[in-house]
Amino acid sequence: MSEVAASIEEVEALLRSQNYVADRALATVVFLSLRLDRPLFLEGEAGVGKTEIAKVLAASLGRRLIRLQCYEGLDATAAVYEWNFAAQMIAIRTAEVVEGTDRETLTDELFSDKFLIRRPLLEAMTPQPGGPPVLLIDEIDRTDEPFEAFLLEALSDYQVTIPELGTFRAERPPIVVITSNRTREVHDALKRRCLYHWLDYPGFAREMEILAARVPEASEKLSREVVAFVQRLRAEDLFKRPGVAETIDWAKALLALDVVELSPDVIVDTLGALLKYRDDIQKIAGSEVEKILADVRTEVEAGD
Questions:
Q1: What is the DSSP letter of 97?
Q2: Residue 226: enclosing H or E segment and its boundaries?
Q3: d(CA 114, CA 99)
Q4: Which domain holds residue 101?
Q5: 37 and 143: one domain?
């Protein structure tokens, strides 16, 4: 993948072309992942931009994005391939009414590419127009250890096996991005196969950059208040702290309401764009909002 990006600076430019603001450490690990053909394992809280990395890489490189959304009970078959049983049954019934159908020929036809449904892992191993695709394996922590072991094997040689058809090996490895919200620990063996990066909440300055890139129509004053308020919320004892995605959503919601500066009433009315649990909203609403907003205004004025 050395032709994709020749330097860390080029990776930063690629990400910024899709309005993704990355710090030097993240740009470096993305560059190394592209250069070394190694999967990129991104871990961190929900909403900090892990999934977005795969999306912006696909968009900026002009590659297809193939997403494997993980869930409890996901197995190798669902991730690799399925047979189109409905179409196979129709073919069988059609053969039954046609004289002279050879059983062996019918069997070969039933288990051919014609009836194969390609799932994300097999699709990622298949040559794609424009170059190897970006394979996003999202929320790997939702699966179980047997699937992790299978994934480790598949990513070691970039190949998968279908018993009826044989082994499919990628001519060129896909760009692999694996994400985890760390709801459980992922096995070390899988992590060792990857380049690892912990994606943390951004500091004030970088979150301002992100908001300027994603919501450029927001005034600097409103953006500073929004970012300062969200940063203060993350210091609270909440069940789910707001991520960068929520910061962006909240700013867009405020603009949709023609808000030019924060007020206690506006914040209470729009907390649902920031916080996703009733207990968190109840904890912040009321006098707590006024206290946080007063501190935010002091910080913003001091910054000015």
A1: T
A2: helix 220-233
A3: 22
A4: 81-113
A5: yes
Q: How far apart are CA 58 and CA 46, in angstroms?
A: 21
Q: Which residues contact 89 (CB under 8 A, 6 or more apart)?
A: none
pTM for the full model?
Answer: 0.89
User: Are residues 90 and 227 both part of a single domain?
Assistant: no
Tens digit of each residue's pLDDT (9 = 90 or more) over 188-243: 999 999 999 999 999 999 999 999 999 999 999 999 999 999 999 999 999 999 99
Q: What is the CATH number of the domain that holds 169?
A: 3.40.50.300
d(CA 245, CA 233): 14
Per the domain annotation, does 1 fall within a domain? no
Kindly provide the residue ranges of all beta strands, DSSP E only, lying in the chain, ordered along the sequence: 40-43, 65-69, 81-83, 116-118, 134-138, 159-162, 166-169, 175-180, 195-198
Pull the structure tokens for residue 298. Answer: 């002091």
Domain count, the chain: 3
